[in-house]
Amino acid sequence: MVEANTPPWTSGLALPTGAHSVRRPATTFKVRRRGLSPKRQAEFDEWIEHHGLDVDGPPIDALGVFGRDVPLVLDVGFGHGESTIQLARHQPEFGVIGVEVHTPGVVTVLDAIVHDPLPHVRVVHGDLLRFLDRVAPSSLYGVRVFFPDPWIKARQHHRRLVRSDMVAAFVERLEAGGFLHLATDIADYAEQMKIVCDDDPDLHGGPVRRPHWRPLTRFEQRGLDAGRSVTDLWYERR
User: Fold this and answer.
1) Is there a catalytic annotation at residue 149?
2) Domains of the chain as residue ranges with CATH
């Protein structure tokens, strides 16, 4: 039996990385393909071969992924890729791994990797929970989760990404002093994020003023246009 104050993922599988698996019985983070033009599909197939990371496989490290020892930042659910691309332009010192299930957003970031160019960015087209099995403890400098699917209805809240099991998994994989940056325009989700992060003994931080350097995404703009306010939360691992 797992004690009440033990993170949920500790009841799961111990991985070759030394981390713990955070698989859920049912996941909504599966690939959601949309049709691409023949030209775009051919580009996607070529680019993902060279600049993509498989969901499953051996443990990853910066040297193996980027050919140099750089701080790794995990960009979770990057949507259409605006923030991933713009932040990567201004932060070449990081190695960025973006994870997304929607094909159009993935191909947009791949296009930027090739033509911008952004050689310090890689993409994962698939399930974050499976990919985390490849990420070792204390190997990430930061994790960004901007405007995750809010699953508005109460009966859908169990599908939300940012819950105690995911926060515990992120924290395990952050190095000391590493950051977790969350943003949402859904008030009750922001409160849920704050509660689960505040409850983690290895995190300190809380709500912050919107960073001027965080790019405005179309998801954020939709929330602002609808009259919702945006909450940014910034935590660091002790």
Assistant:
1) yes
2) 30-237 (3.40.50.150)
